[in-house]
Amino acid sequence: MARPIKETPVLKGKDVERFKYNLEHPTPVSAEEVTKARETYEKFKRITTFVL
Length: 52
Known about the structure:
By secondary structure, the chain is mostly helical. Helices cover 54% and strands 0% of the residues. It contains 2 helices and no strands. It starts with 13 loop residues before the first helix and ends in a 5-residue tail after the last helix.
């Protein structure tokens, strides 16, 4: 039997400021990392089958 999912904690104070800053200023990603991520995605897309 699955365990119940806990509620998402509410952010307060400095955590809110840090979270908002990180959303507005994402870490840059190199073109090489993007290419590798796309290749990995395509690989998994080819080998998986999802039945709906």
